[in-house]
């Protein structure tokens, strides 16, 4: 995440979900607090893919396909096969049996680099609907962070540690040349019941099982012992989730098959 601090103390940058991130400051935000809102996850309703940390692969993989995307091959939980749609958030409420990624749970808090990339700043999205003057759960008391705020700050700090660990995990996959281009396909049914022409619904990067199986025994043992092999298989098993996304999409919008 690349952000810069402007003269007014706000951060400029492009971070998913955050519209007006500002460094948390008791002098500026001393009266702020959080209120309960009817639609707490409304901000994620149009997110069809959300960043994941590697330690989330297990629980997230039970709900979503986990892919690697972008120039950095960042791990992503895919929540819809169509852009600007999240199949797991309805009317601002997250589906009860679905795993909520930490990237979403930390909102409206976030860590961001200062202008010189010398330190990380704890920020809040001032545009978040749950943040208000004299809110129910205060962020500061007598100029000091409340227990709630300290817990949120710690969560962001832990997330940053996991983010760095995830970068190391991805770099390991790249060093071993395990990532390859993959496609998710859907074969619709014609009115007469025969199979139609296959349709590509996603192009992404994933671990190559062939390359993984071709690794020397000592390297596989190393991956097993450091926990990476478990996360790799969690990613591979999660790819069966494409079928679930397709089925839910067709259930909600049958015309999507022809689209």
Q: Count of DSSP E strands?
A: 17
Oligomerization category of the chains in this entry? single chain
Helices and strands, in N-to-C order? EEEHEEHEEEEHEEEEEEHEEHHHH
Strand content: 25-35%
Poorly predicted runs of 5 or more residues: 1-13
- What structural class should be given to the helix and strand makeup? alpha+beta
* DSSP helical segment count: 8
Rg over C-alpha atoms, rounded to the nearest angstrom: 21 Å
State the major sheet: 3 strands, antiparallel
Let me know the average pLDDT. Answer: 90
- N-end to C-end Cα span: 34 Å
Helix content: 25-40%
Major sheet strand order = 3-11-10
Structural key phrases:
31% helix; globular; 17 strands; alpha+beta; disordered N terminus; 8 helices
Report on this model:
With 259 residues, the protein is α+β, with helices and mostly antiparallel strands. It contains eight helices and 17 strands. The protein is 31% helix and 25% strand. The longest helix has 29 residues, at 147-175. The radius of gyration is 21 Å and the shape is globular. Mean pLDDT is 90; it is low at 1-13.
What's the layout of helices and strands?
Layout: E1 3-5, E2 11-13, E3 21-23, H1 26-29, E4 32-34, E5 49-51, H2 57-61, E6 66-69, E7 74-78, E8 89-90, E9 93-94, H3 102-105, E10 109-113, E11 120-125, E12 131-133, E13 137-138, E14 140-141, E15 144-145, H4 147-175, E16 179-186, E17 199-207, H5 209-213, H6 217-225, H7 228-238, H8 241-252
Antiparallel strand pairs: 1-2, 3-11, 4-12, 4-13, 5-7, 6-7, 8-9, 10-11, 14-15, 16-17
